Amino acid sequence: MTANSERLPEGGRIDRTKPLRATVDGIEILGYRGDTVASAMLANGIRTVAPSLYRSRPRGILGAGNEEPNALVRVERRGSSPMLPATTVELTEGLPVHTLSGIGALEPNSEAKDLDTRFAHTDVLVVGGGPTGLAAALAASEGDARVLLLDDQPELGGALLRGTDAELLDWAGGAAELLRARPEVTVVSRCTAFGYYDENYLLAVERGETLDRQRLWKIRAHHVVLATGANERPIVFAGNDLPGVMLADATRAYVNRYAALPGSEAVIATTNDTAYEAALDLAAAGVSVRAIVDSRAEPPEDLAAMACQAGIEVLADCVVAEATGTDSVAAVRIVRFEQPRRTVRTIRADLLAVSGGWSPDVGLFSQSGGKLRWNETLAAFLPEHSRQRQHIAGAARGRYGFARCVADGRFAGVSAAESCGYPAPDSPLRPGISERATRVETEQRPVWIVPAETGKPAEWREHFVDLQRDATVADIARACGAGMRSPEHIKRYTTIGTGSDQGRTSGLTAVGVLAWLRGMGSPGALGTTSFRAPAVPVSFELLAGRDTGKLLDPVRTTPIHPAHRELGAEFENVGQWKRPWYYAREGEGMHEAVLRECAAARTGVAMMDASTLGKIDLIGPDAGEFLNRLYTNGFKKLAIGSARYGVMCGCDGMVFDDGVVLRLSENHYTLTTTTGGAAGVLDWFEEWLQTEWIELDVWATSVTEQWSTVAVVGPRSREVIGAIAPELAVSNAEFPFMTVRETVLGNGIPARIVRVSFSGELAYEVNVANWHGLAAWREIERAGAGFGITPYGTETMHVLRAEKGFPIVGQDTDGTVTPIDLGMDWIVSKRKDFIGKRSLSRPDTARADRKQLVGLLPDEHGTLIPEGSQLIGEHTPVTPEVAPVPMLGHVTSSYHSAALGRTFALALLRSGRERIGQTVRTPVGDRLVSATVTEPIFYDKEGARRDG
Amino acid sequence: MTASLLRTSPLGEREAEFAASGMDIREAGFRAMVNVRVDSASAAADAIGIALGVPLPVVPNTVCGGERAAVWLGPDEWLIYGADGDTPRITALATEALGPVSGSVLDLSANRTTIEISGARAREVLAKGCALDLHPRVFGEGHCAQTLIGKTQVLLWQYGNAPDYRILVRASFANYLADWLLDAAASGW
User: Fold this and answer.
1) Of the candidates A208, A306, A526, A661, which lies 20 to 30 Å from A945 by C-alpha distance?
2) Chain B contacts in chain A segment 802-841 (CB below 8 A)
3) So what's the ipTM on this one?
């Protein structure tokens, strides 16, 4: 073997002015631009690849496209995939290639890839750039429809590229040029459609010339033309996996397109006409073609004559029974079709080119919901019925031959454009070519399997069906023996067709073998296995595209965020929001920082960014009535300028959201929702307004990000508010609890200040336009400096509210908790109706032993019970003879309290209120800790602190 | 006066990155945006249009007007868009025109910011993350849509033929969208 030793001196579509060097398993090879790794390997005399996955059998290159089951490689290049068929990897300079035994390995650091995503819309999508697809795209675009043509090769032309007919290749070149010149046509080469979903939505992967570039296309088409061509099938006989056994059309591709010789002495085995072309092309390239083994008793005379002329013997009514050789094909044993035990001849050969017939590539068609039907003449499953706005044309529906493909493609293109409202002027393109006669093919004589001379099928372990999975006739026979009949079951039992090649060379063959084993004649009655996306392997990283790192998920921040960063805040993720968690000072951990922040709020003054709360404005004469129906408590009679806390339930009576409602004017309310609940609450409002209570005159508008909110909390907060809002009367009498004031801050910023408290302390919420949020924060910070104002984060907020027993919807509730369970009977109106009211009187909701919100005080004052801890009775054994341990409930919130000087918790506990004063136990680490059940309020029970 | 100087816009610090992107991308901060909800068949809807000098469009996903524009958001909802400082005037005119009729007029100027992206590559860059068909035959000047770009909800509006797009994005998502656009503009594809 020497470099380029098997390269033909001329011809092919490779660019001989661009020589390339690469290595395969460390051996240097020479190639040209236009080569694939596989064609360069053959041109350098490398016909053997890594041994097979399970049985370590020697294997060679079988195909010339994405059907390849054997020649799998890993390329040590930035951004390469773990495993690729060598037949689809374009050769580039210096490519280091290693052949693989069917298993690749993920690169640990593969972020170097250049990935992207693109949405595309088109009137007509044409999949496949062979004669059919080109004709379809040309026809479809004549009337100025938007046309998108996808083709998986670097060059348009499809099957024509494997031939030598210059006139046809010129036609393809001309068609490509014409298409590229049309402004509404987009041609995407190196692009493979792999998924076809409802409403003509398709996914495709576009590859760059180098392996590190890939782009995902998400395509919506009004009409689709599938021109996906057909795949050649192998034949199952003994030793059919030896290197040197190739698909006949692939050998043609290697000599014609790549000018690479796949062997020197060849035998052709066929069931149909097409392999004669391969035989003639191989002979023309200098390969000694020893014989054409044709299963048919009477091969067509014209082809036989041409073979004879080329000095090729035709063995009619014969099949190949066995390929023999140790590391590769050395000889081919030929038998009579009807008498598989009678050897006709054994011929020496290093190449056995096989054509078991053609299967239209109906993968995408089937994915789209199209139905198939067996065609006995063509021995193939053909498209019968489309379920979407679609045509399938050319070889993909069994129309073979250039002229038929072009005519079929043209018809599909014209119809497709017409259906989009862009009829084409009727002017057939290059009639001389497109009307060129195609010879009528002779009937095939399908051969699925050539039985072995001896033994039972269950012993035929060298009759390979799926080369990638190393599965044989013996495996299918065993599956049948185990009682399986359906191709779907056989597939799962034997793994045939589950490899990365998606069973392109094995799927239908397996059904053929199964039919033969079951004595059924043809596979027609058995059907195929389902075709699913992806039709070619795609990586998860391609699907993720560029949505990695900071683009993985939006990070939402408030306008005050820069101040939090300056203050060194640690952030907590609350949904997509980054909220300050705590502000540690030099030498502080979270524990110390939170104790300090809590102390400031309880004894001095503290501030927090509360901008993330959802906000909705309700405007209209029925706004009060609407609120009355949504919340458990009443709002219709809320005084203008006042605020009220409210709870909403779902129809099931379970707490759904809570917040504070302000009445700004007669017909204008504004309300807050939980940070995570804003969008859901607005949807909830709209649902009721649009579907149930259309008579209510109310308009709901989300104003969440119009406003920025700073909470100012603590006994000295009144002084800070007085300092920032000089025009505002802040005394308790003039600005009482649960009222709202509109004012202008000293720095000119208009503000809406509300006296509400989520801590039990005297507190205010200063609302300003979002774009003034940062300035308002700084103003409060400045005005509060003299009072030692302390910024605090979500952790301190939680401790402060938990000390007061204020539940957090979503933390202390989980969708199974009623307001009564929370001990909030006072907020549930007995007089009016509201959503969920009826459910509250259901027997289960009214049960006395429901889980209820209680407080817990651990007996050890310093022990923090983890949130989520399960609670059990004081005397419940933890290792009972009979599992499980009966649980009473769980801890929902748990903190250290600066005010209490100890730890405390909130919990949902079965019959909780009855257990107040009792002891429960819970595991902390590997010990059991006892805690006393209390009322869920720990601090300022009488509410003396809210007025300062 | 001082109050307007105290404003910050979400992307105020990203100007240099936009300038270096090789594309015509910029934040147009502090635009006036007033949300109007009213029955489109009512006389009040017409009156608001007359008062503002821009009719409230009834064709879904279209925009009427120029510097002051009415952007269709729903069968009974519009966003009145204008220059910085136009908010009080828009609010006053619309509120007055609405009169006692049921409807709402709400200042949402600080709710979203505007990113403008123009030029030959704009459509292609948006197509990396916007599932809508932006072909001029389908979505041209004067068209708008509430949709997703990447993973954030936006109001997308083609206001010029360069093409020029306005992307109205909620303030908290603006930095994500800026990251997304800069990344899309820098993509080698």
Assistant:
1) A661
2) none
3) 0.97
